[in-house]
Automatic annotation (TrEMBL), chain A:
It comes from Accipiter nisus (Eurasian sparrowhawk). This is Prolactin receptor. The gene is PRLR. It is found in: Membrane. The lineage of its organism: Eukaryota, Metazoa, Chordata, Craniata, Vertebrata. PANTHER family: CYTOKINE RECEPTOR, PROLACTIN RECEPTOR. It comes from the Eukaryota. Residues 1-23 form the signal peptide.
TrEMBL record, chain B:
It comes from Accipiter nisus (Eurasian sparrowhawk). The keyword DNA damage does not apply. Gene3D superfamilies: 1.20.1250.10. InterPro entries: 4_helix_cytokine-like_core, Somatotropin/Prolactin, Somatotropin_CS. This is Prolactin.
Length: 831, 221
């Protein structure tokens, strides 16, 4: 255009020149700056329109000045932007400067300049239009898309290609006037949707920098959108399912429709039939499905099912699907699942699950039988526990962890065929904890209490162990005499006496035996002590003897309990009681040593003589004179008893007794100070044995008690009778074997005759004196060789007597007239 | 495999159960008088086991001899009992008279007695078949016998109690049809044969269930 203009101008000028040349020449006309424009903000160009050249060749010069300077420059580049233009490159372009531009035309005649043009670069930015626009159609998922691509506008300076353009695209069907303009952004491509198939579209793009103006629209491009009409792809039958074994439904997945509305047809044929039917109901089960109602559902036959997709262009048929309705039954999940927590008798909670078959399934007809399976897990658990339940519609669950929340689900399936239903919705149940905690609390309380009780018990046991033991294991009852008939004693009928004492029949009864077995060991030890030189056979017999002894003993002393005795002992603190207790202790304690006596004495707080010398006595005597078993017993008991008895008696009278220690005994009397008197007494008693002339009275007194059985053995042991005169004064000479030199006279007035009978003559010139009734006994006892049970018994009887004597009782009052008599009863009065 | 073993075990125990059923026929002294419901439960359970066994056997045969077109129910398959008119749906089975339904069950069982024993003899010569399959086939054959006897017992009992009429007797005698169609059975392939039997065993079970619930609707139906 410019060129045309210029060329036409030139023609005019030429014409003018020729005219001028003919008519006359003039100065050029005034040029005009048409526009200035920057493509990319870094360079700019200006174009001008020349005026008339005045018939002469004209030169055009562009001058410019900057607002910051006075200096005037000429255009740096007249060629880059074409004729009648000036190009300002990067070096001559300053975006923050306002340029004052003037164009001057000059010829031979004169010159003329244009009006000045003020140029601000940033305000004159306008890029060129994008280039290389191309169009393409693509089909994805049966939808047609148009893709447009282009490139940014070209720049003179190829190196500066870093500009960011924003693009706009416009399109319209070719035959229409209205453009549809779409902002694209900075991308150089765009996908156009919603195109009408079969229509020719015209597309243009333009661009813009972040400032300035939009470029021109690019050149038009046209594209024909294809029609896209094709036959549909073949559909796929997904599945067939019968929810209740009466009807069934099949679903299919359509392929692409080829861009055309497509119809789907389900066709089926039954096994053994040639005829093909169409789906009876497309709507009931939703889109792309076919519902076979009861009429159209047959069992035990195979359906051959296909789906055909059809559009204008053609049709396509799915692969056949073969279905035997019997085996495609998949029921709905069970409904109304309820969880209930119940308590059993032992208070343990258990879970009861109940549910109902799906409402569609007609289980009552027998046509469909459902089996159930349930699963549960703790809420936070990972793995389900699955339980097959069978046909029942309830289930009880035990052994659930208390305190946990469980999730339960149930599903069902027809028996023998078909498939499991979906799981029912999750049901939650919280298993309570408190049941167990309560139990735990109860158990803890019980445990603490019981341990407390145990602690207390053991504590008390430790503190009061002795008493407890005494309480649990009561002391053996001591011998006790109900009473002694003094008359019997006086008459000397010992058998009667014995019977009076309670021992009926001489062979002791067995129950007596049982009662006092503890004697056994006592005697044993004593025996061994007493008879170190004995045969082996003897101890055993001793052992035999002893229980019997004790029998008879206990047989008599069954009245009072040992505790009573001990109480008495404590209360009275009398000598007799002491003796008694000593006896009792003697019986109880197996040690048999005098030490035990001692301790017992102390224990009972009795201060009496301690017969420590006894052992020495006993040990010395037997060696000298005891040939058989009996003597040791006597030796054991009798001396003691004798001592005691005499003691008691001497207590009464012995004040007069001379305390002369004629006997030289090795034995020492360990005497406590408090017991001093007693020692003296004892000594006195010993004196009795040896020399008492004065003690006749005492002997008398003693005799009723026990002397007959008691003293005789003693006499047997160590008394030699030198003279016996029954009619006259009975005089017994007591002679210790050891101390044979001391011979004393034992005078027993009156009644003493019973004792003076000679039972046997032992050895040489030794007489054994026995009461009448007891002659046999003594004789027996004197036979060392003979050890018969009878002997033993008899000796025991004697022994018993001795015990009887020693045992104190309350019989004192009855002393005179009564049948019973307690030797010890004498003593308290003396106290 | 495990399924097959389980099925075998089930079959064995079922045989025992049915033996007891037979020994303890109603009227026997020293035997608890079994109710019709009990008898029904037993034959239903028995038919269920037969169905399980045949399913397992069918799976084994399919695995060993895959059908050429690899499709379930190819159109060529035609069971020798498909000529029998049997109810093919719930409502139909509920409408049909009890006597007729009973008769149908017996007829179906009868129709399989002979072909099954033939089948047993036939597959014994099959070298490829495992012993497990052979024993299954044998068991099926025996159990069908037992089931038929059991159903007859139930029928007798029902007739004696007047639950169904005696009109059945005339129909039951027409066993010639069974023989005629058994020839058809011999023409089938092994897997087709078992497929057909499996279907009919399921039919029998379903009819028995329907029958039971029709006669005793209160009894767990």
């Amino acid at each position: 255009m410019k060129q045309k203009l210029t060329s036409s101008v030139r023609i005019i000028l030429l014409l003018a020149l020729t005219e001028v040349g003919l008519a006359g020449q003039s100065y050029p006309g005034r040029p005009k700056i048409i526009r200035c424009r920057s493509l990319e903000k870094e360079t700019f160009s200006c174009w001008w329109k020349p005026g008339s050249d005045g018939g002469l060749p004209t030169n055009y010069t562009l001058w410019y000045s900057k607002d910051s300077e006075e200096k005037i420059y000429e255009c740096p580049d007249y060629r880059t932007s074409g004729p009648n233009s000036c190009y300002f490159d990067k070096n001559h372009t300053n975006p923050w400067t306002t340029y004052n531009i003037t164009v001057m035309a000059r010829n031979e005649i004169g010159c003329n300049s244009s009006d000045p043009q003020y140029v601000d670069v940033t305000s004159i930015v306008q890029p060129d239009a994008p280039m290389n626009l191309s169009l393409e159609t693509k089909t994805s998922a049966s939808i047609m898309n148009l893709w447009a691509k282009w490139s940014p506008p070209p720049l003179a300076d190829v190196s500066s290609n870093s500009h960011v353009y924003h693009y706009e695209l416009r399109l319209k069907p070719e035959e229409k006037e209205e453009w549809e303009t779409i902002p694209v952004g900075v991308q150089t491509r765009y996908k156009v949707n919603r195109l009408q198939a079969g229509v020719k579209y015209v597309v243009q793009v333009r661009c813009m920098l972040d400032l300035g103006e939009w470029s021109e629209w690019s050149s038009k491009r046209c594209i024909q959108i294809p029609d896209g009409k094709s036959p549909p792809e073949k559909p796929t039958i997904i599945k067939c399912r019968s929810p209740e074994k009466e009807t069934f439904t099949c679903w299919w997945q359509p392929g692409s429709d080829g861009g055309l509305p497509t119809n789907y047809t389900l066709l089926y044929s039954k096994e053994g039939e040639e005829q093909v039917y169409e789906c009876p109901d497309y709507r009931n089960a939703g889109p792309n499905s076919c519902y076979f109602d009861k009429k159209h559902t047959s069992f035990w036959t195979i359906y051959n099912i296909t789906v055909r997709a059809t559009n204008e262009m053609g049709s396509n048929i799915s692969d056949p699907h073969y279905v035997d309705v019997t085996y495609i039954v998949q029921p709905d999940p069970p409904v109304n699942v309820t969880l209930e927590l119940k308590k059993s008798i032992n208070r343990k909670p258990y879970l009861v699950l109940t549910w109902f078959p799906p409402p569609l399934a007609d289980v009552r007809s027998g046509w469909l039988t459902l089996e159930y399976e349930l699963r549960l897990k703790p809420e936070e658990g990972e793995e389900w526990e699955t339980i097959f339940v069978g046909q029942q519609t309830q289930y009880k669950m035990f052994s659930l962890n208390p305190g946990k929340k469980y999730i339960v689900q149930i599903h069902c399936k027809p028996d023998h065929h078909g498939s499991w239903s979906e799981w029912s919705s999750e049901e939650y149940i919280q298993i309570p904890t408190d049941f167990r905690v309560k139990d735990m609390v109860v158990w803890i309380v019980v445990g603490v209490l019981s341990s407390l009780i145990c602690l207390i018990m053991s504590w008390t046991m430790v503190l009061k162990g002795y008493r407890m033991i005494a309480f649990i294991l009561p002391p053996v009852p001591g011998p006790k005499i109900k009473g002694i008939d003094t008359h019997l004693l006086e008459t000397g009928k010992s058998e009667e006496l014995l019977s009076a004492l309670g021992c009926h029949g001489f062979p002791p009864t067995s129950d007596c035996e049982e009662l006092l077995i503890e004697y056994l060991e006592v005697e044993d030890s004593e025996d061994q002590q007493l008879m170190p030189s004995h045969d082996n056979g003897h101890p055993s017999k001793n052992a035999k003897i002893i229980p019997k002894e004790t029998d008879s003993d206990s047989g008599r002393g069954s009245c009072d309990s040992p505790s009573l005795l001990s109480e008495k002992c404590r209360e009275s603190r009398t000598l007799p009681s002491t003796l008694q207790t000593q006896n009792v202790r003697d019986v109880q304690e197996n040690k048999g040593g005098k030490r035990s006596w001692e301790t017992q004495c102390i224990a009972s707080e009795q201060k009496i003589v301690l017969f420590n010398d006894e052992s020495t006595k006993l040990s010395t005597w037997p060696t000298a004179q005891l040939p058989d078993n009996q003597p040791p017993m006597f030796a054991y008991h009798n001396p003691v008893d004798a001592h005691k008895i005499t003691l008691s008696t001497t207590n009464v009278n012995v004040a007069r007794v001379l305390v002369g220690n004629e006997e030289k005994r090795q034995s020492q009397y360990p005497i406590t100070e408090t017991c001093h008197d007693d020692v003296e007494k004892q000594k006195g008693m010993e004196n009795l044995y040896s020399k008492t002339d004065q003690t006749t009275v005492q002997v008398k007194q003693n005799r009723p008690n026990d002397k007959p059985p008691f003293l005789n053995p003693k006499l047997m042991d160590y008394v030699e009778v030198h003279k016996v005169r029954q009619d006259v004064e009975p005089a017994v000479l007591l002679k210790h074997k050891e101390n044979s030199r001391k011979t004393k006279k034992y005078t027993v007035p009156g009644t003493s005759k019973e004792y003076t009978k000679v039972s046997t003559v032992v050895d040489h010139n030794i007489l054994v004196l026995m009461p009448d009734s007891r002659i046999q006994h003594t004789s027996v006892s004197q036979e060392p060789a003979m050890e018969t049970s009878q002997n033993l018994q008899q000796s025991q009887a004697e022994k018993n007597m001795s015990y009887c004597l020693t045992v104190p009782s309350k019989c004192k009052r009855e002393n005179n007239g009564s049948e019973y008599m307690d030797p010890s009863s004498f003593m308290p009065s003396f106290k | 495999m495990a399924l097959a073993r389980a099925a075998g075990r089930a079959g064995a125990s079922a045989g025992l159960a049915l033996l007891w059923l037979l020994v303890c026929a109603p009227g026997d002294a020293g035997c608890r008088l079994l109710s019709v419901a009990d008898l029904f439960d037993r034959v239903i359970r028995h038919s269920g086991r037969i169905h399980s066994l045949s399913t397992a056997l069918y799976a084994e045969l399919e695995k060993r001899f895959p059908p050429r077109d690899n499709e379930l129910g190819k159109p060529a398959r035609k069971c020798h009992t498909s000529g029998m008119l049997t109810p093919n749906g719930k409502e139909y089975a509920q409408k049909i008279p009890r006597e007729e339904l009973t008769h149908l069950i017996l007829k179906l069982l009868q129709a399989w007695k002979e072909p099954l024993s033939h089948f047993n003899q036939h597959i014994e010569h099959h070298q490829e078949l495992p012993d497990d399959s052979l024993s299954k086939a044998k068991q099926i054959s025996n159990m069908v016998h037992e089931l038929k006897t059991g159903v007859e017992k139930v029928t007798e009992k029902m007739q004696s109690m007047g639950i169904i009429s005696n009109s059945l007797n005339g129909m039951a005698s027409s066993e010639a049809t069974g023989l005629s169609i058994s020839n058809e059975a011999n023409m089938m392939s092994d897997s087709d044969f078992i497929h057909c039997f499996r279907r009919d065993s399921n039919k029998v079970q379903s009819y028995l269930k329907i029958l039971k619930c029709r006669i005793m609707p209160e009894n767990s139906c």
